[in-house]
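Intended use. Records such as the Disease resistance protein RGA2-like entry shown here are meant for training and evaluating sequence-to-structure methods. They are not intended to support clinical decisions.
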Amino acid sequence: MEALLSVGGFIASAVLDNLVGQVTSDAIQQFGWHSGLQDDLRRLRTTLLRTRLILKSAEKRRTKDENLAQILQELKDAAYDAEDLLDEFEYQVLQQKAESQENQRGNFLSSSLTLARNVFNRDDDVAAKVREVMGRLDSIANDMEKVIRLLDLDDEGKIYQRSARRETSSFLTEPEVFGREREKELVIKLLLKSGDATEPGDDLVHVCSKRQKKDSISILPVVGIGGIGKTTLAQFIYNDPKVHRYFELKIWVCVSDNFDVKRLTKEIIESVTRERLSDHQNLNCLQEILKEKIMLKRFLLVLDDSWNDDPNEWHRLCAPLRSGLQGSKILVTIRSHKVAEMMGTMEVVFLEGLANDAYWEFFNRQAFGSQNPKEHLELEAIARKIADRLKGSPLAAKTLGGLLNLDLDERHWRTIMDSKIWELKQREDGIMPVLQLSYQYLSGYLKQCVAYCSIFPKGYSYRKDELVQVWMAQGFIVPQGNVQIEEVGSEYFHDLLGRSFFQHSSKDEYVMHDLIHDLVQSVSTDEHLRIEDGNWQEIPSRLRYLSIYTENLDPSTLMNFANSKNLRTLVFFKDLYDTNFCSVLDCLFTVSTKIRVLKLRNYGIIELPESIGNLKHLRYLDVSFTYIPRLPESLCSLYNLEVLNISGCPIENFPTRMTNLVKLRQLKADEETICKLADIGKLTSLQELRVFKVVKKRGHKIEELKDMIQLRGRLCIKNLESIESEEEASQAKLNNKQYLDELTLEWNFCRGTSSGNDDEVLEGLKPHSNLRRLEIRNYGGVRRPSWLEPQSLKILKAICLENIQGCGQRTTFVHFPFLEILCIKNMHAVKQIGLEVCGSPGVNAFPLLKELEISDMLEWEEWFGVEGIQAFPRLLKLHIQYCPKLRGLPCLPPSLRELSLENVGINMLPESWDRDHGFPDESSLTQRGNSSSRTSSISHMRICECPNLVNLEQWLLSHHLPAIRGLSIIDCQKVVRLPMERFKDFLSLIFLEIRGCPMLPSAVQLILPSSLQWLILDSCGHLDESLPGCLHNLTSLTRLELVRCPHITSLPAEVLGHIALTNLTIRDCGELRSLGDSRALRSLEHLDIGRCPQLTVLANEEEQGEGSARLRVLHVDDTALVKVLFSTITQPSLETLQIIDSTELILFAGEEQLWLQGLKSLRCLYLENCNNLQSLPTKLHSLSTLQRLTISNCPEIHSLPEKGLPSSLEVLDFDNCHPVLTEQLQRHRQMMKKSHIVIW
């Protein structure tokens, strides 16, 4: 009940905070004035303030009192009802404005009164509703006061104090630590790292001198969610002998949630002196003592389980600690990444779950104790399923393993497996109580946001912007002055990300750890419901947020929610659609009219019911990737709608009143669709408009943009040839779009010749000075606009110029001092490129430029500079493509990290210039010299299709390229010289690719560096004659690709045996006859062998051993290779098998069929381009784990095997198959669909 009190109280508080702001908003005040409700609304505000004040008092009580919990729940209900009522009022104001503009009449007073009477029948009803809400809130506030007074008389009702402090010590509580060796070594390495450490015994003068070099101590944060093993790792490190020898003094203090500087300082001193201190000493006295005790010692201080997010308190604690000797460290374990970055001076160490093998060993120990799991095989299978759900959390393993260990009975274990983790009885140090601490520390508004995520399934990929938008729609985000509400929501998200409620999974996506998801579910059971996998649950009486994540639910069942009149969110994650679905939605929208978020993404629906117009509170509507051709007219009365997503919908036209949606902030649609919307300029709240096509008809002219001042992000304006003058162009008022970051101005590429007014049009399209990126495409003018200069675009970071037809043979570019990216494309007339720089010699041209890309310049011959001017001193990336006539390049700046040259006419690679070397003139271009002694910072280089390059030997020098990590030389047909023996000197090289260089001779042996991790050799003349000898010392090699290497005959075991290859590709090696024995291939995870007809044996077949235990992916063109590579030994780990370009008539015959049946983990099977194949494997049905089957371009297979396909199949793909087989596969696909299996 304590958790319920926390949720009810803090969330109610957040709702009340929103209400106080809402009741004083302009729209509500306007409504009150026109409807005569000013006094009632004023009294409502007073009631809200009083209720909030009493609630704040209640929140300070730590109590399990059920009466107070019930009152708080009623308060939350009343607050939601008040929010809905005020929302109704705001709707009336929006409706009146829309109708007033529509009818072009405007007596606002009479219209508002009429609207109010229409909605509430008479003015008295409006007042009655307001007074009813006030009465409920007053009554609840009075009840709260009474309960609080009673609780104050009881010890249980004392003012809330921090929970009983969790105590930890430096002594290991586990007899053995599993799976943390790598993290331990990393942290110890960081702790012992000290560039200028002071050794004990140094004289005092020397010590003071060293201390003055650095005024802050090194602080290493270890971050992770609760229960992930931070404390155990810290104990593991604290007791390590290397740490013990390095630090003269070691101190352990458990901080917990009570970050009291005085208490912590006192405990640190007591840990050093082993003596108790008086409680009456002040902080200054304690800090003086601490300074004295650590001054002559190098110490390690472990602050375990810190929660403090106040930087001032942190700095107060650290003040005396800075007196320690250089090399002293503070190790902090903490859950919040944000707080870790605030307090840490060293790189944050993020602790994740244990690796699978180590976790299973640890879980086994907890669940079975001293028992042998092999004696309980039925329990071991259950244990593995439970362990998989825990995602590597050691504390979860201890909690659930301990529960399992109580009774080694299958029924008991299955009960635990089928239970929700938060429903299991746990001690206070169990996984759920530990995780709940993280939730308790959240503010009320963050609690709402977190609890809402319970409607999403485990493993769901969150996108920050979408999540913020639904939080906005629910009213969870509290406005902060003039700050854009999306920015406030983004701060919420990053706060939760920093507290480990979310984890970064890919570029724009985030996930929630399964245990955090369990925690979120445990605190959101009253108002949130997720129906998953057809598991029907009891509908909570207070249901507000509903998601359905199942395919086998009859749509009519949705009518069970007809009584959920307070429903605010309805989200469908899988397609339930049938012919009755639209009628079910129609009924639902008639009853559940308070929905604010509705998601029907990827559904098979072809229409939305007109009753969607009843959803007056709707703010977020997603019907993307459905089959809806038109939107209902009633949609245009959803005046509160802020986000409409119709991406991927075949929208034919928009409703006539679409522009009434004046609060619409996001309209997500395909380019073709959005350009159909006339008068889009009336949507003045719109923040994103990716594309606007100018058309010479009403509602589509450039003037539509003039009032859209909220546009931000990126805007592309197309068809600029439809604008006739500078005056017309200026009507777009681009110079008032202060939030716009990126602007693209584009004329039609296919328009033929310029109309002659391009200069004027571009002049009239002056952007705001805040613009960061500008792209101009297909411009036919000859003048540069007056605004394209540094004084007008002061913070411009990127310029892209493409197909600028007016550029002559010699072109210069204006110097923008803050430019970071410059892109030049498709200027076919240009023969010379240079710089126009304002200033005197010695100035740096483009001093901040980081990326330069020049491509498709078919006539470009020369790059000229200005004497005394250094160009691009901070350039990091240089990409030049499709410039076949370019004779040479200027010297490269020493800052350059990445160089890519593709289809460039140079015959020598460019040099580097040193700091005193200016931008070169023509005489210093690359063709002048043979080599350079200057040092470059290039780490990645790609040279592709440069037909004039012959000799790279003198340029590829280790002292010239000391930082090179990746090198690709591709399709340079004339190259005959490479530094064959000197490759070994590139000590940082980890990737080497040489393809399509057929002229390389065989005179010199290729010698490679031991740092190499990935090697690709493909059609490289006689270079492959160095194989396999050049592989001998490549101890770091993990990926090897050999393609079209006609001189290689074998890869013996003595070569492969000491290389831990994970990926091996061998194709079109016609003379390859044997590979090393299977033990040499044991580390492989991915193996691809094709078109190697001579490969028939493994070396030392009699010593094959156990084969590759890790192999997950196998691509072959001949299943006979299975016998060669693996004999009859199965590959239990194999997940993907692809048979491609096979010439066989039958697959997996004889012993090979037994091998196929033994693939117990196979998930995907691909049969592609097998033109002679007569049939599918007869035992295909026995692959019980197979989920995906693809059959493509196998025209001779006439039918399925007699026993069909495996029942586990989820995805079935086929293409260009025999008609009879195609018909059978189509029938099977229909059967799968009826079984509710996903079909792609």
